Amino acid sequence: MNDNPNPGRYHLQLTSGGRPVQHGWWDDEAVARRKLARWVGEYGSIPDARITLTDEKIGALLTEWP
Fold first, then answer.
1. CA distances in angstroms from 47 to 17, 19, 33, listed in the order given
2. What is the pTM of this model?
3. Distance between terminal CA atoms of the chain?
């Protein structure tokens, strides 16, 4: 849970087996996409890992891995 009332537009979330493991928010899409690539390298070997990038302002899934 994020207690920040304005956490940022772009939400990156890592789940494993459908359970949240880590998440973060950024105001800049390019930064969020770089973080996604970094997370794939760092956490991609976690069993059943899934990483999603969502634009919270428009409520759209921008990309996911795998």
1. 7, 11, 22
2. 0.88
3. 24
> What token pair was written down for 30?
């390019």
| 8 A C-beta contact, residue 22 and residue 38 | no
What tokens does 11 get? 């939400």
Cα angle 21-23-26, degrees, rounded to a multiple of 5? 170
For the chain, counts of helices (H) and of strands (E) = 1, 4
pLDDT tens-digit readout, 15-63: 999 999 999 999 999 999 999 999 999 999 999 999 999 999 999 999 9
> Are 66 and 50 spatial neighbours (Cβ–Cβ below 8 Å)?
yes
